[in-house]
Fold this sequence. Notes:
By secondary structure, the protein is α+β, with helices and mostly antiparallel strands. It has helices at about 10-15, 25-40, 60-65, 90-100; strands at about 50-55, 75-85, 105-110, 115, 130, 155-160, 165-170.
Amino acid sequence: MGDLSAHFDRAEFRCKCGCGRDDISPDLVAKLEQIYAYFARTPTGCKAIVITSGIRCPSYSVKVGGYSSDAHTKSIAADIIVYSKNGIPYNAETIAAVAEHCGFSGIGLMNGACHVDIRNEHNYTNAHWFGDERDGQNFSTFQQYLPLMAKQEKHKLTVIFDGKTILEKEF
Length: 171
């Protein structure tokens, strides 16, 4: 159990420049738990979701190729790798399809990872973006990559963030 939720610790999201910023959005963590739950129900399962980049202060975001006001600087984004039960990473397209299914509004394909964010008209300049960060191509959907489920039974997801229940969802 992580210190934020069942599968995530605050330290995973902390800015890597050393500034200590770790004010991650509870809504982002809840959505990441939904991704975990979805993959856990597939035949190959889910061993872990690794956060390769979470929160970034503006100067660090620019240093690593982002922007000083991108979704990472607003605490609403993470770059992730999802590993199956046998330790093999899912491809970016599959992660993107599951993220779209779970309601993420910002999704970007990356080499070996997938950018996900919870942008909307209140917290970001454009409320929706699906694209490929490798070549700049934009997409309307990633659903053609959605993995098939082993069983079509309902599951209940409860997300507890900092000791408080922030989401209960059946899907």
